[in-house]
Structures are given as structure tokens and as C-alpha cells.
Amino acid sequence: MERRPPLNRRLSEFGTTIFAEMSALATRTGSINLGQGFPDTDGPEEIREAAVRALRDGRGNQYPPGPGVPELRTAIADHQRRRYGLSYDPDREVLVTAGATEAIAATLLALLEPGDEVVALEPYYDSYAACVAMAGGRRVPVTLRPVDGSFRLDLDELRDAVTDRTRLILLNTPHNPTGTVLTHDELAAVAELARERDLYVVTDEVYEHLVFDGAHTPLAAFPGMRERTLSISSAGKTFSFTGWKVGWVTGTPELVGAVRSAKQFLTFVSSGPFQYAVAEALALPDVYFDGLRADLLAKRELLATGLAEAGFEVYRPAGTYFITTDVRPLGESDGFAFCRALPGRAGVVAIPNAVFYDHRDQGAPFVRFAFCKKTEVLEEAVSRLKALAG
Ligand code: PMP
Ligand code: GLN
């Protein structure tokens, strides 16, 4: 009898993540890595020092409390109040996780019964599909389509995607990989739909501080949404410490309690000393957050202009540190093949957006470049990419 393969059916469609594959390709070929989204400069020195201090002082070196250290839970609640006027009880309505990745996994494992449907904006961050699958759910993509230079949500399609089996909408704004920031009206329409159909909404807000055009408004701030929304964020992008893996979930005690039930059996706890450092980071003055945004805005301009000059069609992102491009003006149609050849042609690595689609054909010509890199690195990448135009 033929032996069953080790990987179960739920996960067999998911190979190695594109981020690991493309970062390995960058290392192997010595290319500039504009693929995986991580900064090439660490975050604030005083926050790094805060982590060192916590480690030296013996804070967090043993298992921290399951829901997260009180200092961090309080800092998260303060941040939500100060930024968005949202009030959460640090003891019952805040849960610290191993990055947003665990928050997403625990939320889906907690809320879904097998067969439940999850409506998510396509293209979507790759862990969504895998986690929906692990939870036995069914993903129902709603495709963002290019309209006048940005990828937009069709609200009628969203409405049509909801069925009696829909358990939740998984929303990501600012959106990776397109850089779309949903407008106030779009969010209001999502909120209305969720109320009308009595749905939960899980919002992935890891790029909340990286909005260049418009403003970030958490869905939980809309009328009637606090009680049905689980808001997820993390320190990785906001403070440029993606390796620390400190994330969090906020919501009602009932919802957060459900997520905690799953989370306790995934990691139980993580990132002890880093939790203290992130508590300090969240309390940094506005000048830090403004500086981060200004720095990345300048880099967005540098890379967007360079990519356009190199012949790409550029979708200038309103948020995140990613630029989605269309490679068709370069005479290409397959983003995958383009990305695999790019190290050889130009010494640069990018990510094919098709991997974030169920409808692969819809994503085929799109390629994502990250701009969370040093100015000189972006300048060198741009000069290499211009060779493609010639
Ligand atoms: N959601 C989105 C949209 C992301 O781009 C990422 C990658 N940073 C994550 C979640 C995961 O965040 P973390 O590194 O905190 O697990
Ligand atoms: N969020 C990052 C990106 O989209 C990568 C995270 C990862 O490597 N899993 O590039």
C-alpha cells in the first residue's frame, strides 16, 4: 500500500512561503532584496536598549503571564485610546501574541468551525489562506482591482460574497501587497454589512502607522463595531524590529477570551523581554511616528519614480512599505517568471503578487517591491532596474 505523505491535505497546497524562497534567492545571487518586507535598519536605539535592560534585569526571561506583561497590555490600551479614541480594558480586552501572525492563527482557530467561510480581500497576505485551511474553514476571496492608479474594493462584490455560512470578514488595511488604504466610506460600508449580516470582522492593522495619503481609521471605531471586531496589530513594522515578534489583539472580553483559548496552546507565551521594550516603544512621542512616516514617504517617492522610469506601471501605495507594479509595459505577462529571472537580469529580488491570489490569473502581471531599505540601497536598485528599460 502506498504510504500517505507526511503533510496533511489541509496544508499540502502551501509550499514554502514566497518570502523564504525569494530571500534565499537574494542571498544565493547576491541581489538587492526588495522582496521580503523587513527593514535593513533597526528601530530606535533607546527601544533596543530597553530590551537589553529588561533582559539584564531579569524581566521576561521566564514565562511572562499568558495574556502578556501588564506593562505592555496597558501600553496597548493607552495607544488605542490616544490614537483612535478606543477604550479597552488592559486586563480583559488585550492579548499579546507572537507577532500578528500568531494573532491571526489563534483568531481563526478560535472562531471557525469546519466549513465556516471567511471573506478576505484578495490579494491577501499568505498566512491567511494557510490559517483558514488549518482551521478547516473556506476562504472566499473578494478581488481588489486596479481603478485609476490604485487597487479598490468593489462593495457590491463584497456584499455578494457573504452567505449564510460566512463567519467573519478578514480585513487588511493598510493593505499588503497593494498599498491600498480603505477610505472612511469603504470602511463604513463594511461596517454596515457586518452589522446587517451579524458578522465578526478581524482587522489586520500591522501597517497602521504607515499611511501616507489619507488616514488610518480602525474599523472598531465605527458605530456598533467594537463588539464584533477583533483588531490585530504588531510592533514589527511600526518599530522596525520584525524579529521580535510582538503582536496583539484587542476586542471584547468574550472575543479576546476565545482567541486566548487557542493562543495558549500555540505558543502559550513568547518574546518576554521584548514585551517590556515594546511597551516603551508604544509610548514614544508623536515625533517618532511622524519621523518614520516621513522617512518612508521619501523612500516611496524614490522607488516609485525609479520604477516608473524603468518602465513599470506603478501603483503608488497610500500606505505600507510596498509598491505593486505591473510588468506588462516591459513586455512581460508572468510576474512569477519575471521575479525568478530578475536577479540574473538586474540583481534585484521582488515578490510576484500572484502568490497572494486564489485567482492566480488576476494577479499574474503584478510584482511587489519593498521600500523599507536604506536610501543608497534603493538608489542602487533603481539604477540596476533601469537597465531593463534599455
Ligand atoms: N499581516 C500582514 C498584512 C503582514 O504584512 C505581516 C508581515 N509583517 C503580518 C501580518 C505578520 O506580522 P508579524 O511579523 O507581526 O507576525
Ligand atoms: N510581512 C512581510 C512581507 O509581506 C514578510 C513576513 C514573512 O516573511 N512571513 O513581506
Could you give a short description of this structure?
With 390 residues, the chain is α/β, with parallel strands linked by helices. It is built from 14 helices and 15 strands.
What does this structure look like?
By secondary structure, the chain is of the alpha/beta class. The protein has 14 helices and 15 strands. Helix content is 42%, strand content 17%. The strands form four sheets. The protein has a seven-stranded mixed sheet with strand order 2-10-9-8-7-3-4, sandwiched between helices. It has a four-stranded antiparallel sheet with strand order 11-12-15-14. Helix 4 runs parallel beside helix 5 (126-134). The termini are far apart. 49% of the residues are buried. The mean pLDDT is 96. It binds 4'-deoxy-4'-aminopyridoxal-5'-phosphate and glutamine. 4'-deoxy-4'-aminopyridoxal-5'-phosphate is lined by residues 99-101, 125, 172, 176, 204, 206, 234, 236-237, 242, 245, 247.
Total number of strands: 15
Q: List the ligand species.
A: 4'-deoxy-4'-aminopyridoxal-5'-phosphate, glutamine
Strand % is 15-25%
Please compute the radius of gyration using only Cα atoms. 21 Å
| CATH superfamily caption of the largest domain | Type I PLP-dependent aspartate aminotransferase-like (Major domain)
Average pLDDT works out at 96
Distance between the termini: 57 Å
Shape: globular
Query: What class, by secondary structure content?
Result: alpha/beta
Poorly predicted ranges: none
Tally of discrete structural domains:
2
The CATH architecture assignment of the largest domain turns out to be: 3-Layer(aba) Sandwich
Helix content: 40-55%
Instruction: Describe the sheet with the most strands.
Output: 7 strands, mixed
Strand order in the largest sheet: 2-10-9-8-7-3-4
Q: What's the tally of helices? A: 14
CATH class of the largest domain: Alpha Beta
Classify the fold: give the CATH topology of the largest domain. Aspartate Aminotransferase, domain 2
Q: Helix and strand succession?
A: HEHHEHEHEEEHEHEEHEHHHEEHEEHEH
